[in-house]
Amino acid sequence: MISQETADRIKAIRNEIDDYQQTVLALKATANEFMFDDEVGDLNREVKVRFGRRMKKSSDKIVTPDLVVTRSSGYGIVGEAKLALPDTKEYQVKEILQIKEYDDDLSGWDTVDGRIQSHDIIQLVHHLRGPTVRQLVEEMQQKGELILERNLAVVRFCTVAQRDTWLSLELCCGALQDKVKQAKLAKCLPIKYSLVAGNPHFASVKLYDACPPLPYLMVLIHETIVNELTQDKLLQLREEGRLWVELNVQDFRRKLSSFYGPGEEGEAVPEIPRANWIHNAMNQFVAMGWAKKHKDENDTYDYEVRKRRKLDEQFIRVYAKTMLRKETQKRRKGKPDNIRQRNLFE
Amino acid sequence: MLAAINEKVECFYSASGSLAEMIEAGIDVCKAGGVVHGAMFSAETDLQVLVSKLHGPYAKRRGIRATEGQTALIQLHTALPEGGESRPIKALVSEDRTSRTVMVASCHTAKEFALLLKHFNALLQPDLCRTFLRTKEMKRAIGRIGRGLDVSIRVTEYISGKLIEDQDLAAKTVKTGREWTDEDYLDVFAKLEEENSWLSSISLAVRHSDGRVLNKARLRSDCQFTCSRGLDFFLNAAVSSLREEIVQSHDFYNQRGRCNSPTGLCRPIGIAYDQDVFADKKQNHRFIGILEKLRDVSISVLHPNPYVHVSLVDYLDGSSYDIWVTDPSRILIVPGTKASASSMGRLCNHICDQFDEGVVAEYA
User: Fold this and answer.
1) Global pTM?
2) Taking 90 as the threshold, does the pLDDT of residue A245 lie above it?
3) From the CB of residue A76, how many other CB atoms can be counted at a distance below 10 Å?
4) Cβ contact (<8 Å) for B266 and A200?
5) A238: which chain B residues are within 8 Å (Cβ-Cβ)?
6) What percent of chain B has pLDDT over 90?
7) Are residues B156 and B93 in the same domain?
8) Alpha helices in A228-310 (DSSP H)
9) Are the C-beta atoms of B42 and B245 separated by less than 8 Å?
10) Given A165, A238, A313, which is nearest B122 (Cβ)?
11) Is residue B244 part of a domain?
């Protein structure tokens, strides 16, 4: 039996995982829409989509939008997803102002010279945040705090479950150069989940430039380790029920990036997932007794692979208890609670 | 009579020189009143390599010994679960290099053969790929048996599965039916289609127009068979027909993961139903429960309701999938980086057998 407190925390973690996945799906749905050729009625395979890309500003500063769509050498989209917003208006304004970084002659597009004639900026927000962000953006624009050379479109997303399940994209405010897309988004554009989830071009993408809830990352790590086992190791696992594998965080980070993130290592590929996310997950495995950290090598762990079932349940339960224990310890020491992962619906 | 059968059986196992010898000996076994059990697989590698993998320490621990040859002889030295006299369980393994298929045949009892197959299969994953035929594929394979021949194909017995309609009151969700009959195979398949049932196994009698029984055999949807009469006819007509289905099935499921797909992108598949089987959201939980029952996998339920999203990893060969139900009449299976034909076939068969038989096809 688990306590009500633990049950509530488990529910909150499940919501966080759901929000994270919905945000990734929203990025994919946006990519899907901008790949879609409205005249032909099919996806245009010439359109290049990147889920996370290091781009250079005219000042040589590097920025990394969550989504970069190169539709042609003349037009592209950069998209940024916001899963949550800070509680205070001051910090909310700071968050919104980050979008100004993309209002520049960026290089790093999928064109011959890496440049593009013009681009629009899309800010993706969860539908609950939509009205707040729209109000903030309009206020900031009226005050002259957010004057951009390029179009900014605030698009909110939500899941709509009817007979089929849809990911709905809706333009909250702003404009796009592509007036057909703008009109579609203004009317609220439902995209079938299956179209997004089953699109082979980006079906594998599961991570973006925000730390996923730890139990979700742990599921991905465990699955990747099993994926990567050689035939001999798999035979050993089948026959003996367990085996140890060595995991170097830097090497494994690259693997996860190519499996679920922006892809193989390269100059333009951002560090998604980040090494410290993997360290945190591995330390949680260590706490669970599933892994051991090498004493002399900070970046290396031994992980015990077993034919374990219902991974999400195990990870979420343990993580919920760990969080609650830490909070209790802090309370005893007189420190205020620091709930690192925010529940969107709180 | 038993002595006669045993004598022929010994000849069968000593026929590891060639397939022709094995067939001849098998025919004699059937004539003497015995039966030949068999199973067919698609193979990712040739027989020599497969057999070499049966020389390792794990094969030894399981009591498996293999002797190489044009047809290999494998033996399982183990105590039988129900006790009794311990004797090695033997089987002959032959390959067809053109279709990259392997056939295992034995004259032991069905239980002994199943035990041997279990070990054989466990040691050779994912090089050895079991094929599961759906009802339409079984019908097609059986139809080809009589192709160009003046024969009738009669069904003498079959086992089928059907979804129980009123599941609120039932402890089980799938009804299994066994019928003894003497009908043309087409009538049986028409009846199954009408009843929305799927076939698990079927016993056939192939009769010539002059009344002679050319073959008596039982076929299972996992490409296992038992032949009690006319092994030569069975091997010529039925095995070649099964082989065609196995090759088609393997080609369909093969190279769908990102790492071995010809396009470098994963190739999703769908299981489609002609009814909204997920209209009642209770079916989501039933579906998840069924996935949880699949052996040697781990599933993570990332979303159960109103849509289903499950991440599944197969411990047998490291394949992984995202499984989605976002449409009430279709299941979407998105292969991960690695997805073997064997694993995909196993997963789809499990869903079709335990949840409901749908049409497995390219996702578009």
Assistant:
1) 0.90
2) yes
3) 24
4) yes
5) 122, 125, 296, 315-316
6) 64
7) no
8) 231-240, 249-260, 275-288
9) no
10) A238
11) no
- CB of B110 within 8 Å of a chain A CB? The answer is no
Chain centroid offset of residue B97 CA: 20
Residue A120 pLDDT more than 80?
yes
The C-alpha of B347 sits at a distance from chain A's nearest C-alpha, in angstroms, of 16
Same domain (yes/no): B114, B141: no
When pLDDT is cut at 50, 70 and 90, the band that residue B173 belongs to is confident
pLDDT at A336 over 60: no
- Residue B241 domain flag: no
Using a CB-CB distance cutoff of 8 angstroms, which residues of chain B are in contact with residue A223? 298, 311, 313, 320, 336
A200 with B122: Cβ contact below 8 A: no
- Chain A residue with CA closest to B323: the answer is A197
Question: Does residue B54 lie within any of the structural domains?
Answer: yes
Are B196 and B109 in a shared domain? no
How many residue pairs from chains A and B have C-beta atoms closer than 8 A?
121
- Within 10 A of A59 (CB to CB), how many other CB atoms are there? 6
The answer to whether the CB atoms of B302 and A21 lie below 8 A apart is: yes
Mean pLDDT computed over A191-213: 92
Domain containing B299 equals 269-362
Complex prediction ipTM? 0.91
Structure tokens at A2: 């688990």
Q: Which of B58, B268, B309 sits opposite A203 (nearest CB)?
A: B268
Q: Is the pLDDT of residue A341 over 60?
A: no
- Cβ separation A311–B298 shorter than 8 A: yes
Q: What is the CATH number of the domain that holds B286?
A: 3.30.160
Q: Chain B window 289-318: which residues touch A at a Cβ cutoff of 8 Å?
A: 292, 296-303, 306-307, 309, 311, 313, 315-318
Q: What is the CATH number of the domain that holds B19?
A: 3.30.310.50
Q: Give the distance from CA B161 to its chain's centroid.
A: 16
Count CB-CB contacts under 10 A for residue B104. Answer: 22
Helix (H) / strand (E) element for B43: namely: strand B36-43
Helix (H, G, I), strand (E, B) or coil at B176: strand
The C-alpha of A211 sits at a distance from chain B's nearest C-alpha, in angstroms, of 17
Residue B262 counted as domain residue:
no
Same domain, B357 and B326: yes
Predicted confidence band at A343 (pLDDT cuts at 50, 70, 90)? very low
Of the three residues B130, B145, B179, the one that is the final residue of a domain is B130
Same domain, B207 and B290: no
Residues A316 and A10: beta-carbon distance below 8 Å: yes
Domains contained in chain B, number:
3
Q: Which helix (H) or strand (E) holds A91?
A: helix A89-97
Q: What is the per-residue pLDDT across A64-73, written as a single tens digit (0 to 9) for each?
A: 999 999 999 8
Residue B284 at interface with chain A, using a CB cutoff of 8 Å: no
Distance from CA of A306 to the nearest CA of B (A): 9
Range B186-204 average pLDDT: 94
CA distances from A267 to A250, A258, B29, B97 (A): 16, 14, 69, 46
Distance, in Å, from the CA atom of A245 to the CA atom of B108, rounded to the nearest integer, reads 41
Q: Residue B326 and residue A223: Cβ atoms within 8 Å?
A: no
Q: How much is the pLDDT for A290?
A: 93
Per-residue pLDDT averaged across B334-343, rounded? 94
Best of A166, A204, A233, A252 to disrupt the B interface (most B CBs within 10 Å) is A204
Q: Are residues B171 and B102 in the same domain?
A: no
Do B16 and B64 belong together in one domain?
A: yes
Q: pLDDT digit string (tens) for B213-265?
A: 999 999 999 999 999 998 888 988 899 999 999 999 999 999 999 988 998 89
Same domain assignment for residues B28 and B104: yes
- Contact between B310 and B300 under an 8 Å Cβ cutoff? The reply is yes
Residue B138 confidence class, pLDDT cut points 50, 70, 90? very high
Confidence at residue B83, expressed as pLDDT on a 0 to 100 scale: 60
